[in-house]
Amino acid sequence: MSKQENTILYAELQEVILGLELSLAKLEKTSEKRIQHLESDNAQLRLQIEYLKRKLFGASRERFEAEDNNQLKLPFDIEPLPESEARKETITYERTRERKKHPGRYALPNHLPVEEVYLEPQEDTTGMVCIGQEVTEQLEMVPARFFIRKYIRPKYVTAAEMGTHTQKVLIAELPSFVIPKGKLGSSVLAQVAVDKFVDHLPVHRQQKRFARHGIELPYNTLNHSSNAVCEALELLYSTLKHKTLNTGYLQVDETPVPVLDKDKKGKTHQGYYWLYHSPLGKEILVDYQKGRSRDGPKQLLKNFKGYLQTDGYNVYDTLVSEKKDLIHLNCVAHARRYFYDAMENDPMAEQALSMFQQLYAIEREARESMMTPEQRHMLRLNKALPIWDTLGKWIHETHKTVLPKSALGKAVNYCIPRWNSLMNYLRNGYLEIDNNLIENAVRPIALGRKNYLFAGSHEAAKRAAMMYSFFATCKANNVEPYPWLKFVLDHIQECKYSKLETLLPQNFNHNKPQ
Question: What is the total count of domains within the chain?
Answer without folding.
Answer: 1
